[in-house]
Write the structure tokens for this entry.
Amino acid sequence: MKILVANVGSTSFKYQLIEMEGEQTLAIGKVERIGSAKAPLSHQVAGMPAVIQEIDAPDHTAAIKQVLALLCDPRAGCIADLSQLSAVGFKAVHAGCLSGAVLVTDEVITAMEEYNDVAPAHNPPYIAAMCIFQSLIPQTPLVALFETAFHTSMPAHAYTYGLPYEWYEKYGVRRYGFHGASFRYICERVPQILGVPKEGLRLIACHLGGSSSICAIQDGRSIDTSMGFSPQAGVSMSTRCGDIDPFVIPYIMERKGLTTREIRECLIKRGGLLGISGLSGDVRDLEEAARSGDQRAALALDVFVYEIKKYIGAYAAALSGVDALAFAGGIGENSVEVRRRVCSGLEFLGIRLDPQKNNCRRVEAIISRDGARVKVLVVPTNEEIIVARETARLVGILQEPRRK
């Protein structure tokens, strides 16, 4: 069974083609700067030279068409034709109470559209891509695995807001949580690395990147997470504000005369590390600027680290202790300094980092000191394999009656 996993951004399309027997990646690639006549494309088939070129990609339809053509290309591809695709899996984000792995239908797309304003950077591009695939390969099943799925195990006291309860009953206002595929991979992989069962393991997972969230995991199940009704909540992110006093919003709207669309734009694209520093939302840029004496860049990093530490402390309390702390995502996997700063001062929890072991990037590693009570790990996450597995599982169930 061959599953194409689609990761869609507002100006990008990333993909992996995975052969589920042996979970082998057959092809991986991406198109960036979609909307440009010179969009960079990279395409790599296992055992073959990479294809690096610029393509005319005025929209996602053009980009996806060229990717599908490459996959079938006799010289650069790995399948004879598109009929060999068993399904396309999407790392979908938000459809409210609709969660888990579901077959993409018009009803599912409508449910996603209702949350476009809640996840404006994610839902519209995914909806567009799903419609494109429906048009280009209508006979191929499309499956959406929603990022909220992993967090459906949260207890009511963790997902309920202090708001009129009818808002939850009528409008689904509650904590949903995101980065579900990443957290599921982490909570499966950490017990394997440590050689312990997931039952009884108290794990705090930090997915840190342009989008960041923290998750408290007990027995392999999410019991709380930092993102909420939208991917906007939690720690300050690259350009997203994270947790703020809700009264800031009407206060600023009234004084600046902003519309809801304008304030939403500010919170999503002008907040977070970029908003604090006035320079960049990229931690690498901020670390370089801070070393050169930029005080606002240093402040942005201070805020980022401090908020992560607060969540770790809170989740240690929610879990009644902690056995393992895992870092994933672009920042979590690569920033030696962020990991060091986050762990510094948490020795009272049993977290003791080994400086030499911590000096690693993009590799799976245990970076805590030998004998430390809490194991600290770097786990390069693999969201695509989680999407592929769930897609294959659902397609297998759908095909079961035919076999009978």
